[in-house]
Amino acid sequence: MTTTYAGATAEPAPARRYLRQLGIDTQYVLLGFPLGLITLVLCMTGFFLGIGMVIIWVGLPVLVATLLMSRGFAVLERARIGPVLGRSMTHPVYRSAAGSGWMRRSIAPLADGQAWLDLVHGMFRFIPNTIGFVFVITWWAIALGGLTYPLWDWSLPHPEANYELPEILGFDDTAGTRILFYVVIGLIFTATLYPVVRAAALLEAAFGYSLLNGVDRLRQQVAEANAARDVAQEQRAAAVSAEAVALRKLERDIHDGPQQRLVRLAMDLGRAEQQFGTDPEAARATVAEALAQTRETLDELRALSRGIAPPILVDRGLRAALTALAGRCTIPVDLDAPPIERLDPAIESTAYFVVAEALTNVAKHSHASEVQVIVQRNATGLLVTVADDGVGGASLAKGHGLAGLDDRVRAAGGVLAVVSAAGEGTRLTAALPI
């Protein structure tokens, strides 16, 4: 049983696709020949007339008019090239002198490199146009003529003194031989019609694309490369900033927690050592207190280690780690995290820290009664949302608690957004690419 889905577009059959492309390529080449002849005459005439009269300044407006005319032909050619190459053709941005005087605006095309490339295309396109036209006309004529030869062989004179091609090649001079010979020739040219016409069309289209869109495409690639470089630099800077913030936080937590407890533990043990000789009961009490300090120190060190690299995240994945994180939060957490496949460790770690930092901020500052955590996996990335019903007022600005989290998300190539109107709670959303 076959199920048909509404809106689905069926892939055309190969034969139909080839015939359609053959028609597109044929009309492109055949129409390109007269267009090439027209642009050759107009562009050559306008260019050399303008160059010859530029000394008396009359040539400047002639050159400008010629460039504008070639731009019009270039726009038409880009529209024709698209179906041949199977891609949408972008129109380059031409230079203009906006805001200047009318004189500078009038002669602005003279300083535009793409305008001159359009003119060069108009002057020299006739060369590939002619080559393609000759091959396409020849192949179509011989293919159609050979296949239809049995229909009109009777109408041709065949005098005894006239040696036809089959007879020159050594075949018998009979109607059957001629018909079979020319039909075979027609079949050969029909079989090679598509690749020959396709090659002729691609020759013209490649020439036009290189001049009309090649430079603009190169500029776009350079701009995209520069943008990618800027993004990489921003991610690197964000990663350095996030690491520095994490290290400062870890140092502060160790200094305020385990380090102070270890100092007190050393003092208690020293006091107990002195008390053993004079007051054993007091010494035992001091040792018991030191043991309690040791347990608390171990608990704090475990908590800090979970903040650096939680083992449950490494062993069991993001969902299990978020479940454990929600269970430790002092505010009720509604966790919506369906099972997903294991992701890149950097992405999982970033998502975990987004939720951990957000829950910490909610517990400390929001005065919320409930918080909702949603994790969604789509085709391009991971979407992590933490929303509470607290007092709001959170911000990504430098100096606020979320600035370091924003650096961490940007270092992973993601985007962090915060909506936190006063009195309306806070909604934090992190989009992480996969």
What does this structure look like?
This protein has 434 residues and is an alpha+beta fold. The chain contains 16 helices and 5 strands. The protein has helices at residues 14-53, 59-85, 102-106, 113-124, 126-147, 149-152, 165-168, 175-191, 193-212, 214-256, 258-278, 280-308, 311-316, 318-328, 345-366, 403-411, and strands at 333-336, 371-377, 381-388, 415-419, 426-433. The protein has a 5-stranded mixed β-sheet with strand order 1-2-3-5-4. Strand 4 and strand 5 (426-433) form a beta hairpin. Helix 5 (126-147) runs antiparallel to helix 9 (193-212). The longest helix is centred in the middle third of the chain and has 43 residues, at 214-256. Residues 1-9 have low confidence and may be disordered.
Task: Describe how the helices and strands are arranged.
Layout: H1 14-53, H2 59-85, H3 102-106, H4 113-124, H5 126-147, H6 149-152, H7 165-168, H8 175-191, H9 193-212, H10 214-256, H11 258-278, H12 280-308, H13 311-316, H14 318-328, E1 333-336, H15 345-366, E2 371-377, E3 381-388, H16 403-411, E4 415-419, E5 426-433
Parallel strand pairs: 1-2
Antiparallel strand pairs: 2-3, 3-5, 4-5
Helix pairs in contact: 1-2, 1-4, 1-5, 1-9, 2-4, 2-9, 4-9, 5-8, 5-9, 10-16, 11-12, 14-15
